[in-house]
Structures are given as C-alpha cells and as structure tokens.
Design brief:
The protein has 372 residues and is mainly alpha-helical. Helices cover 67% and strands 2% of the residues. About 3% of the residues have low confidence.
C-alpha cells in the first residue's frame, strides 16, 4: 500500500466540545490525511470525518508511520466508538469494490478491517477471496494462497473458509487439499461428526445446497482419482513450465484412471504448450466426451483450433467459454488474438481495451497499444 502523507495535530478546541462519548487523551495527537497538493492544514478547519480518515490510514498500515503503538490502539478505540457498524459497512464495501474489479481499493478496505479486527476469521477470508479474484499471475496466486493459509491456520476455522479454499485448491490442481477442505466443511455441517465447541463458535446451520455441492465434489474427486500424487505432480510440473516431465506424470495417472476427464484435460494442456496442437485437441475432445465442460477446457480447445487454422470453430468455443465467465481475461485476450489473426484490428482493440479495464498491467493488452 502506498504511503499517504499524514500530519499529526492536537485536537482543536473547536471540536473538543462536540465529542462527549469518548474520553480524549490530550497527550495523543490526531492524524490527518493531507490532500495531494497540501503540506499543512489549519486545525480550525478540521472535521471529525477528516480525522477518522487519517486514523483509518494509520490503522491500515501502522508500520509505515513512526508513532508509538499505544497511539494506534487509541485510534482503534476511537474509530470503533464513533463507527460501531464499521465491520459490516466496510466488509460490504470491499465486496462491492472487488465485484467491480477495483481490487486495490478492496484490499485497502480489507487492510483497515485487519487493523481494526486482527485475526478476525471473516476479515481474513474476505481478503483471501479478493486476492483470489484478483489473481492472474503466478505471483498473485501465491499471495492468494498465503491469505488462505492464514485463514486456515485459525482455531477454529470459519466453515466458509474451508468451502472457498476447496475451490481455490481445485483451481490450483491441488485436489488432495481441496478434498480435505470440503470434507472438513461437510463434517462441520453434520451433527453426528461435529465436535463439541464448533457449533458454539458458529451456531448457524450450514446451507444444504453448499453441503450437497461439497459432497458431490468429494465424490467426483474420489471417482476420478484426482487426489492421486501423479495428477498433482503433473499439474504442478506443467504449471511451472516443465511440460515434458508433466506429460510423463499425467500419462502415468491416466493409465490408472482412464475415465478421469481432468486427466485428459491436463494431458491436452501439456500437449498444447508443446505446440502439438492436433494431439492436444484429441485429448481435450476426450475430456469433453467424459463430461468436462469448464471454460478453461473450451479455451484450450479454442487455442488448438486457432493454431490449426479453424478460426470459425475457435470463435465458437471462445464465445461459449465467455458466456460462462464474462470477465475471464484469458478468454477475452484470446478473442483479441483471434480477431488479429482474422484481420479485424478494430475488434481486437476493443477486446484488449476490455482486458486493460480488468487488469491495467496485462502485458499482452498493453503491448497491443504500445507496440512492445
């Protein structure tokens, strides 16, 4: 988070009389956030809103400012007294910002909540969800993973942390960990397996729809053998660029699990990265035949068709995938690439502009307009 200029002032006399529900400490100065073009302030022009804004800035990044820890604790007490509903208000705001793609702002709000409610299961889960939604690069996936690991290290763990972490680990190809998370979620929702004390922490009944979804995913992982070490190792090898080694591992997996569509998908993914497009397409189509229908699968099939010169079929696959995930940057970028290949530069530019709206740092989209 970028350090914002803050100055520290005594509480002005004009405001002391208006605060009768919090005992002010005259030895602690009040932080005030400066506007970009300001270097000083008239204390008599201050409002409580400006002071609270300054306090929140300090609370969200206390190590950025050289002040005593007791001052930070004082600011926390002040804010929680003045804004008792801040947890729900700011949590809702961070969710809205994340849904709108304003991830940096969502994370700033989350940092404030972390400062006010250190170790809060809900705050830590919300941070993990924001980072997961933001993640495009490997580094961003690592940030999201670290956030989930922190949320999972609490005692007890919030049930929704297990549920959402399960999907996150599936996205990373970590099906063994995903299965463990979903299993823990299901056990928390079943009275007979629920250890005493967990329900006293989280008394609300877990939604039947989510419990059934978790049970189905566990059954799918078991039936396809996706918690097999060969699958996990193959996925990680290919994801880290070791495609030939990953190819060998995924073939070992498919010998034992020939009907696992995810295995055929990973095989096709590796072959596509090795530019063996016809072989890749064959494997990906096998994944479809066995029940695979994810947008990632459609995207991989589209890339193969594109490289094989079947632009019409590539367009069809990408449009199908985009209907499932309208803000998937990989799919939108590939639509841009396809438009370039078919000579429609105007359409390509519109796709890449949309990509930059979702991720201003996307290298491929930026290169489209800078010539890099």
């Amino acid at each position: 988070m970028e350090k914002v200029p803050v100055i520290f002032l005594p509480v002005p006399n004009s405001l002391k009389k208006s605060l009768n529900f919090f005992e002010l400490d005259p030895s602690i100065q009040i932080p005030v956030e400066l506007s970009p073009n300001e270097d000083s302030l008239d204390p008599n022009t201050l409002s409580w809103e400006a002071i609270i804004s300054g306090m929140l800035r300090i609370i969200s990044a206390p190590n950025e400012y050289d002040i005593p820890p007791e001052w930070v604790d004082y600011y926390k007490r002040f804010v929680l007294t003045v804004k008792p509903e801040i947890y729900h208000e700011f949590t809702g705001a961070s969710i809205v910002k994340a849904k709108n793609g304003e991830f940096d702002m969502a994370l700033e709000i989350s940092a404030i909540l972390e400062g006010l409610f250190p170790g809060s299961p809900g705050v830590l889960l919300n941070k993990a969800l924001i980072l997961e939604k933001k993640a495009v690069t490997q580094e961003e996936n690592i940030e999201a993973l670290e956030a989930y690991e922190t949320a999972l290290s609490l005692e007890p763990v919030l049930p929704d942390t297990f549920f959402n972490a399960g999907f996150f680990f599936m996205r990373l190809g970590e099906y063994k960990r995903a299965k463990d998370c979903f299993s823990r979620y299901v056990s928390m929702g079943e009275e007979s397996d629920n250890p005493a004390g967990i329900r006293s922490e989280f008394p609300a009944e877990l939604p039947a729809e989510k419990l059934n979804q978790a049970k189905k995913i566990i059954a799918d992982i078991n039936s396809q053998g996706l918690d097999d070490s060969n699958f996990t190792e193959a996925y990680n090898l290919i994801n880290n660029g070791h495609d030939e080694k990953g190819l060998s591992k995924i073939r070992d997996f498919l010998q034992k699990n020939p009907k696992a569509w995810n295995g055929w998908f990973v095989l096709g993914w590796a072959l596509r990265k090795l530019r063996r497009y016809s072989d890749s397409l064959e494997s990906l189509k096998k994944a479809e035949e066995l029940g695979g229908s994810s947008s990632d699968l459609k995207n991989e099939i589209a890339i193969c068709f594109m490289e094989l010169g079947d632009f019409k079929q590539a367009q069809k696959e990408l449009e199908h995938a985009l209907r499932e995930e309208p803000e998937n940057i990989k799919i939108i970028s590939n639509l841009g690439v396809l438009a370039m290949k078919t000579g429609d530069r105007a359409k390509a530019e519109s796709y890449f502009r949309f990509v930059l709206e979702l991720d201003p740092e996307d290298a491929l989209a930026k290169g489209m307009f800078t010539g890099e």
